[in-house]
Write a structure and sequence with these properties.
The chain has about 150 residues and is an alpha+beta fold. Helix content is about 25%, strand content about 20%. Strand 4 and strand 5 form a beta hairpin. The longest helix has 11 residues, at about 10-20. Keywords: Iron, Metal-binding.
Amino acid sequence: MSHEGIRFSSKEDMAREAVADRQLSRAAVTPTKVRVLITEGKGLEIEWSDGHRSAWNFGWLRNACPCATCNEEREQQGRKPGQPKKKAAELLPMYAPPAKPTSAQAVGRYAIQFNWLDGHNSGIYSFDFLRRHCQCSECKFERGETAGAPN
């Protein structure tokens, strides 16, 4: 008897999947204000129609690139969106400049795209993707990514 395709999930995995699969309201994925803080080197801030506020730093955004190539690489390495690549142990680590875009532009009314300093620009960050990966303590708690109560 073959067990290929059978996956055993923990309660925590099932809770995370339920949060990821839930339908978000139109207001939850409709931004009222989008700020890309390139000059300050901070990141992306979005105020949503439902009153929620989200913020992501550029390092997280670059490591969460939703393009097919980056998704495949993350899956092969067992990383989640936003999780950095494991660094190889080096005697003298090489300096890597922090992730920063040279520009950003809207993609229709549903997404934002960055042109990164490293030349990468194929990731289209939908507002749905961004809201589902909000980095505030309340959302991370809801997804089971932090312990204790949200701040």
